[in-house]
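MODEL INPUT / OUTPUT PAIR
PAIR INDEX: 1
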Amino acid sequence: VFNPEWQGPGKSLSASWRQTSLKIFGTGETVSFPVQTCTKVRDVKEALANSLMVDSGGISFVVKQGCSSRLQLDIEEVGSQVTVRGIESFRPTAHRWPHPVCVIGAGYHGLKTMMMYLKSGNSNVVCFDRNARVGGYCWI
C-alpha cells in the first residue's frame, strides 16, 4: 500500500492505480489485480511467493517489449502484461519432501492410506509390513 511518507526528499512517486495481469508461462492461467504505478517487481514477487508458499528467488517476470521479451529486474516498475516463470499454478503447492512417506503395515488401513495418497496425487509413498503377504492378519 502506498504511503506518502515513503517518498524521500526530492522523490515524486505516482499514487495512481492501474491493472496488472500475470500469466503463468506455458499455461493459460492468469490473474489480474490493481497495483499502483510505483509498485516494484520485487513487491509483487514477494507477495506472490508468500501466497504460494514458494521462494521468491525462483520466480521471474518476463514482459513483452516490442518484438522481443525481456526479463524484468526487481527494481523496475511491474509491467501491465507479465509472464511469470518459476511457478506451475497460482494455487499454493504441497511441500515436496526429499524422502517418501512411510506407511507401516500392509493391512486394510495401510492399503487404504496408500490409496488415499495416490488418489490425492502423491505417489511418493512406501509401505512396510512384517509379513510376506499383503493384507495384514485378515488373510493369514
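PAIR INDEX: 2
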Amino acid sequence: MLAHLATYSNGLWMGVDTADDLKNKSLAASWGFSLPELKARGENWKWAPLEEKFPSWIDNFVISHTLKDRPQLRRIAEEWINYTLSPEFQAEVLVKGLSARPVNAKTKALLTQEMIETVGLDNATSSNEMFVLMPELDRRTRNGFDLLWKQAMAERAAAQRRNRQ
C-alpha cells in the first residue's frame, strides 16, 4: 500500500511544505504553514478534521543549566519564552503566519472569526478530544519505518523508469 501511494502520488512530503509545493493541488498532508501564503495567492485551503484525531506533539523550550550563574542571559531566555507565549505573538506568528492553533487561550480575542474557524478555535471540542500525542518511537521502530520508506521509494523509482521507456 505504501509503495502504491508513493508511486502514484503527485508529490512527496519533504518536511515543511511551501505554497509552491501545494499550489493547484486539491489535497495534501501538511503542517498547514503554507496556507496563509496560498490564501494570499487566491487558493483558500481548509483543514479536513480527522475522525481518528489529529496527530500532535508538544513543542517545548529548555533553559540550559549553563545559565544558572548568568542571570542576565537567563532573564533574556525567560523573557523570550514569555514573549513567544504572549497572545500577540501567538496571533501574528502561529495563527496568521503559520495557520497553526495557538497555545494561549487569550489569543482568540485578537483574531477574526475567519481565523478562529481556520485553526479550529470555534469548535467546542477540547484539545484532548481533537488531538492524539505522537509517541516517541524507539530506534527499532524508526529503522523499520525508514526501511519501508526506502522500499517504497525504490518501487517509485522503478515505476518512473518503466514509464519513461
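PAIR 2 NOTE: The two ends are 24 Å apart (CA to CA).
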